[in-house]
Amino acid sequence: MRTTAFFAFMALLSAGCGGTAQKSPSGNIRAEVFAGKEGLYYTVTHDGRTVIDTSAMGVTIDGTELFRDAALRPAGMRKIDETYSVTGRKAVSEGRCNEYLFDVTHRPSGYKYRLQTRLYDDGFAYRFVLPGDGTRTVNGEAAQWRPPQQSRVWFAERNSGWKLLTYAGEWISTTADSLHIVSRQGPVQTMPLLYRTPDEYVMIAEAALYDYSGMRLRAEPGASLRADFTEQEGFELSGDIVTPWRVTIIARDLDALVNTDIITSLNPAPDPELFADTSWIVPGRSLWSWWSGIDGGFMTLEGEKRVIDTAASLGIEYSTIDDGWEE
């Protein structure tokens, strides 16, 4: 269960905070959000270096681009310092960040919604909360990332129809400015994407994906990335719409990257009604019959028994039963 060590809420004064300037608890990560005639934008820096250059953000609902001709007003700030239990590589994780709130008004329609940002010492995240009633269609997002062009990017390549339906593939790399042309399947890539800049690692991801479509990333010339969804015409949601967190993880090295707590911190705690007892959740290794390529035995009763027996003989804790388990 999560416990909050320090939880303060205060008014955010434009004069005192540079209007939309934000920083992480140590001040090493800084961000700025601002509104222009054409949309909403943000920038992210790390130790004074630009990590994400001026990039767009915003949501289109029922055909209305709510980020165009929008007014942005600081609405508050809070410091979050919490610890919570996790299952896996360590027993306790930490979530320390500064959270900033902004009221957004779409001038043509008068519709009001909220932008929420969080700055950790190893990353930046934002999401939108869009109140409403009834069924509405999310037509897409203006979400963009512009990492340094002189970067190398690792992506999951899989030359089949499964590429954009899974997080599985062969991880290969290319220059950031060639990502849009490197794949035979086109410029759309699955997340996450990992960039190696001259000074740090930068990973693009999402968190708290609930009641929303999973996002893909469309690479563009100039190393830019844009949000892309399977549902090209949009998807329907009911009531208030809360977008997943759009996350930029920034790490000095690979050790810091794999030990980040940002993704778990941005996700809500497990539902206590569904996970009243978690003692049965034990990490371990697994054999996988599909990956192992057993001849003629994949998803057959006798074949899977063989894999389970093999796992037991090797002292491996689990066996993964894949697509087709319901048969």
Written description of the protein model:
The strands form five sheets. Strands 1, 8, 9, 10, 11, 14, 15, 17, 18, 22 and 23 form an eleven-stranded antiparallel beta sheet that branches. Strands 2-3-4-5 form a four-stranded antiparallel beta sheet, with no helix packed on it. Helices cover 10% and strands 46% of the residues. The two termini are 37 Å apart. The longest helix has 14 residues, at 301-314. It is mostly beta strands and 327 residues long.
Describe this structure in a few short sentences:
The chain is mostly beta strands and about 325 residues long. The protein has helices at about 15, 255-260, 260-265, 290, 300-315; strands spanning about 5-10, 20-25, 30-35, 40-45, 50-55, 60, 65, 70-85, 90-105, 110-120, 125-130, 135-140, 145, 150-155, 170-175, 190, 195, 200-205, 215-220, 225-230, 235-240, 240, 245-250, 285-290, 320.
Q: Mind sketching the topology for me?
A:
Layout: E1 3-10, H1 14-17, E2 21-23, E3 29-36, E4 39-46, E5 49-57, E6 59-61, E7 64-65, E8 70-85, E9 92-106, E10 111-120, E11 123-130, E12 135-141, E13 144-145, E14 152-157, E15 170-175, E16 188-189, E17 193-196, E18 201-207, E19 216-219, E20 225-228, E21 235-238, E22 241-242, E23 245-251, H2 254-258, H3 262-266, E24 286-288, H4 289-292, H5 301-314, E25 318-320
Parallel strand pairs: 24-25
Antiparallel strand pairs: 1-8, 2-3, 3-4, 4-5, 6-7, 6-12, 8-9, 9-10, 10-11, 11-22, 11-23, 12-21, 13-20, 14-15, 14-17, 16-19, 17-18, 18-23, 19-20
